[in-house]
Amino acid sequence: MSGRTIVAPRFSYAAEVIGGNEQGWLDALPQVGGGCDQVPDTTLWGWLWFIGLRRQVRTRLRRGRAAIGRGNMVRRQRPKSGKAARGPEPKPSRSLRWDAPGFEESGGVEEAGSRGEAANPATDLNHEEEFERAWTDPRNTRVELPAVDINLVLAKYYRMNEPLTFTRTMLWDMEVKKAYRPDLYIPSVVLEGSARYWRRRAAADGAESFVRCSQQRLWLEPSERGLVLEQVFLNPTRQSATFIGAATLVDHEGNVLRAGDTQPLFHVEHSVDGDDSRPLNRWRIVYLTGKREQELIERFTHRRRVWLREFVEIYIRTDLGIDLTRKKTL
């Protein structure tokens, strides 16, 4: 598909505040009560409370940024991967978005190796090595989906109200945002409002790690949900996001969280591949089953899918502001 290239927002959820004032900026975000294992209140009063909280967050965030001043804010540089034609900035997002990673955070950014809890999975764990170790263990159950050529699928199966050349920069921007707010980008899997993250830390070469929890649909019982705990690592150099499942985590208040025990733990890797003007979306998962579980594999292999994954569709609609309609297929 030909057309102008829409440049992804340069100031992503992973933007950080430097110059010694990062805590002041993060203090602008209110602390949200409730644990990861609590289901959000979906009653009328619950929604009214949420709307009021959203307005409060926006007000406090603006005040916090104003108090710090523009001199202490930096925008993360876009990855240099190919020569993409510059075009006008995308339309403002129409969904709930913050400059900060999200209002569920509990604490500021810390450099890797700084003082923290005695057992600190966000810094001590090598997420990528742990994923590969589990992936190569023949006792586990592995699934790798075919790489998705975003622009090819857009041209073949979608109609849009304006031309779009989707880039690697956009795809990585989406992966970062989805890592922090899975409930916004994977609503069919993650219960809205259930995602929380904390212990966010900066690492070398712009990488960062944090831990998160959310209520997710069970893989083999999608009508039911369970608490999922994950240790996350975002690697902008490789443009990969690694999620290491955990049985227990300690939250920012010292409470022990325990993942649901109705399904095996799993690790997931999302990554970006291909040229800048023809990005490929890669995805693989490994279940810590102790033996090969064919039923889990068949959950993916028995589904014929021609559409983009929902998080890409949501990113195009909400972050890029482009109307997207699926074409009819046979």
Protein described:
The structure is a single chain. The chain starts with about 20 loop residues before the first helix and ends with a strand. Strands 1-4-5-6-7-10-11-2 form an eight-stranded mixed β-sheet, with helices on both faces. Strands 3-12 form a two-stranded antiparallel ribbon. It has a two-stranded antiparallel ribbon with strand order 8-9. The longest helix has 25 residues, at about 45-70. It has a single domain, classed as START domain (Alpha-D-Glucose-1,6-Bisphosphate, Chain A, domain 4). It has helices at about 20-25, 45-70, 120-125, 125-135, 150-155, 170-180, 180-185, 295-300, 310-320; strands spanning about 110, 140-150, 160, 195-200, 210-215, 225-235, 240-245, 250, 255-260, 265-275, 280-285, 325. The chain has about 325 residues and is an alpha+beta fold. Helix content is about 25%, strand content about 25%.
